[in-house]
Amino acid sequence: MKKVVLCLAILVGFTLGAARAAEPKGAEPTCGQMISSMAAIPAKLSEGAATVADMWEAHAALMGKDKDSVAEAKGLRALAKGHRQIAASLMKASEEMKKAASWAGAPHDMAKMMSDPKLAEASKKMVEIHKEIIAMFQKSLAEMEAQHKAMK
Question: For residues 69 and 35, what is the distance between their CA atoms, to the nearest angstrom?
């Protein structure tokens, strides 16, 4: 479940980061365009959550009929259901982010935004969380690759 929460944190972090976009000038993208350009991230996270659900359901289908196996299969199916719900939410967020491209470029008081402690703290925290998420994904990937190699 922690990975799911972290996936959602990614989405929030990218959205907060986009809010710091500069006032539109010529070729500079608007906040809406920046948000739209990041819509592929929650879409890919949605795909990942759905794939994890597929994996857990396939695992559950192979479980035995003894008490412990039935309990594990039930737990796997419950996790899969939750991941499907998360996948749907992430895909909806992605679609909404795509629509942001049509937002008009609104003027921003960058001095006010840059001096806002809440925005500064959220931005700093976003960077820290992204680094943690990347490290977690790298560790998880290394473990999965080692497991696949051991199965061959």
Answer: 44
